[in-house]
Amino acid sequence: MTTATFSTQRVDPYNPPAELARLQREDPVSRVPWRDGFIWAVTKHADVRTVLGDARFSSDRSLPGHPMNAGYTSAAKLKNLIEMDPPDHTRQRVRVMGEFTVKKIAGMRPRIEQIVESAIDDMLASGDAADLVTALSLPVPSVVIAELLGVPYEDHDFFQVNSATFVEIDTSMEQKLEAMGNLRTYIAGLVEARMENPGDDILSRQLAAGAGAEELTGLGFLLLIAGHETTANMISLSIATLLDKPELLEQLREGPDLIPGAVEELLRYFTIADVGHQRLATADIEVGGELIRTGEAVYAFGHVANRDPDVFDDPNRIDFTRGARNHVAFGFGPHQCLGQNLARLELEVVLEAVIRRIPTLRLAVPFGEIPFKEHGPNYGVYSLPVAW
Ligand code: HEM
């Protein structure tokens, strides 16, 4: 057992907390003090996959003792996939999975390219400097999800403004909660409208496949929450890294074929889910030689698992050719990210377009002065001042 308390805060912009890297070396499945109790911190790649692959490590936040139970308010009781266990989870997930296959998502490429080109047009027309987060990283996934859900074009502004309010640093908790309420009500209205008037969109197809209105509102909201800020953070971190490390940018400029590999490697490298996948053991289960008992809380730390030297050679080096597909940046097992093909596609399209269209793009502040989101839950940047 490790008795020192530790922090999940990042101090080095390019690396997960050093304390977790130390645990991985010395005590990879360790019982550590956390808030007013203890958690199991799981840090090796194989052990993280064991935890995430076993649904007896429950995601159900309504269970007493679940590490996310404290934040479980009546407002959040609209259960969605990410906080459900089998068999309910399996039933809902199977119903919606077909919407996110590689083939289905690949069909979205032309439209995503248009969305990205148009965001870059607007950014370039605005002058010779911008905050890349508000100009590109946030709007692109927001418009993509709006279109996926079938949000009518005239409501895009409302959708985008409210979803950005969640994540911007200068909005108060009150504003965030209000924006969340607005979106939830909006999505519930959208579901109702589709019940009366089905269209060619995910909500209508889910209704036809037997999903109920409440489940579908939860799903629509989850897609927005899970797919907006995460993708935006990865866009910003990827571009900040390329601008900070010109040799990497040059590799992609000379060999655009490397972009899919670069996306995979940057996903591995940053693994933005910073507070770990939080689970509650519902049985006594051995992980990495330690017995985790029923009722104990488990945090599986993907970011440090993705630097495990037993799996990735020279793990702290960014290598676009390493073929990093076995990373756990999208989780693993039953809850593995439903939108991963979409996230990959958005990242590929954005990197390709930015490199091609803005050859003079540069950071407008030193890399160390970028305001990084060091305190979780998702790593990223609050703003990214750039110029061209
Ligand atoms: C789940 C990461 C983008 C939808 C997850 C999980 C991770 C993750 C780590 C697993 C959570 C857990 O085990 O408890 C990411 C990252 C993204 C991204 C790094 C961007 C780079 C997206 C997008 C969408 C999406 C674009 C959809 C529009 C979901 C959903 C789940 C999920 C619905 C829950 C799946 C389930 O519980 O069965 N994501 N995600 N994500 N993600 Fe993503």
From TrEMBL:
Q: Which domain of life is it from?
A: Bacteria
Q: Name one GO molecular function term.
A: oxidoreductase activity
InterPro entries in the cross-refs? Cyt_P450 (IPR001128), Cyt_P450_B (IPR002397), Cyt_P450_CS (IPR017972), Cyt_P450_sf (IPR036396)
Which EC class, in a word? oxidoreductase
Record PROSITE patterns: CYTOCHROME_P450 (PS00086)
Alphabetically sorted, this entry's keywords are: Heme, Iron, Metal-binding, Monooxygenase, Oxidoreductase
Which E.C. number(s) belong to this protein? Answer: 1.14.-.-
Q: PANTHER family per the record?
A: CYTOCHROME P450 YJIB-RELATED, P450, PUTATIVE (EUROFUNG)-RELATED
Q: Which family does it belong to?
A: Belongs to the cytochrome P450 family.
What's the protein here called? Cytochrome P450
State the organism named in the record.
Microbacterium alkaliflavum
**Biological classification of the source:** Bacteria, Bacillati, Actinomycetota, Actinomycetes, Micrococcales
